[in-house]
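Problem: given the chain below (560 residues), write out its structure.
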Amino acid sequence: MGMRTLEGTGRLFDVWRIPDRFTKNPDIIHFPTGRLMLVFCDCDKHWPEQSSRITTLESADGGATWGNPRVVAEARIDRGEERWLTPRLSRLRGGRLVIVCDHDDYNYYHVDRPSGVWIWFSDDEGATWSEPRHTTIPGIEPDRVVELADGALITTTEVVPRDNWRLAVMASRSRDGGLTWDPPSVVAKDPGHDYNEGAVVVLSSGALACVMREENHNGYPSCVAFSYDLGRTWSGVRPLPFSGDRPYARELRDGRVLVTYRNQAGNRGTHAWAGDLADTAYQVAGVHYGDEVCLVGGALHIANRPRGVTRYLLQPPENLRSDFLLEARLRVDGPPGVPLATLHVSRVSFCVFVLRDAIWCDFRRRPASSANPGFHGSTTGPRVDAAHPVDMTEYHTVRVQATAGRMWVSVDGQEVIHGVVTREWPLEETWFGREPEGGGEVWFRHVNYHIRNEHEAEYVWHWDARRGRLPDQYQLDNMLEISANPPADPVAYSDGRHGEISSGVPDNGYSSWVELPDGSIYFVDYTNHGDPAPFGHLYGAVLTPDDFGPRRRGSGEDGS
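Solution.
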């Protein structure tokens, strides 16, 4: 059982590759004549160290071929010029084209810094462009410029405000075609989250939606906010059923909103979701590399596949003061002396490892060292702070719990291991699943998860294999993997050891698309898959609304 994918269908193709360059962050538009145009950034590597060029391409045959590259602006680091990052391209109702792009991230994050956003105009369909005009839009990473019903223009940026030092999304409006911009309105801001890369969607109802990246990742979802006064004020955020970087969102003609994004909850790659933004809920995500997963005999069976990874990601607690309960009825089988299954709760780094004959508890989830080796002498295995002998080849209910700072582990209702929350550890994924190094098998019958937070909403999730649905069933049913781009070593990547596989870290996912008159969806993105480091190229795909099934209500079902 796996997510639907375009890999192997023949529907993925290269769009543009420049030898020894990294081409990234494309944005595409469609002309009434059928011509397509896109803008992208042509760099020496993902984070330019020598040069970056805002470049346009054109296609006169529906995207089958691309050409006529034009450099709109170039920045050379050796000349003291600041790098260009993420250009966005729009076509206004009167035919005027608009490009917005941001300069160097580090200089312009803060609200007290000048704007990092520049703007260009073309009145001859991109044959020539105006000189760049420095805007007053605060922050960086602008959304494409969107034209509203009253003729105003709107875009979003990410900014660090003075009052909470976290990323916030702000929306800026222009009433004179982009020459000047009004002071921004706050779309999303709070002390615990980093909201950025907001994408404004004009809904057929007349409302606006802003789909946002949540920079903390590790199980936190993307979010959406709504505006009912053309972007002057916003509703506050609510969770979406996916976690994606640089979401690109527009409403399809059938009324659903299609969002494409760099996936951050589950397997890496560029994914897509379509549904009703107002009818969504948080969803559990699954990471699957190599393992075979199936429902059999009233249980979820994760088979033994060497170096396979299966993790089901849960919403993390807000902080160390959150009360939580993570309970699973499970059994395992495999070689003795090594962890086979895991229950891990982030923030307090409370990790329970299930072996065939014992339960180990690591209160700190830190790598082992030569002075404190993990299992089998591994320097990356768990630290064992406490252990409880039990025959886990038979089913038992294991509960990991914390209340008011006291932590404990119970087996079949009996408390067997105790601990205390003493500090907050860096945010990691909260998950249950199989340990890849163990080489064993795991059977889960049910999982219950409950967090009661200090400020954020309480969260409860129940799953039972007897219902015939996998923990990540919503993801499997409702999302599409456009391009996989797996890490070179999924085990190291899923453990956060990116530095060990730097040459094989996936890089993709600043996508864009247009719905064409025939109902097809022409999609573009960048990827480093198949390119020698540190280079990448643009690729494309053709989607249809049917890839996401018929339009239906109820996209917010929790999959339990």
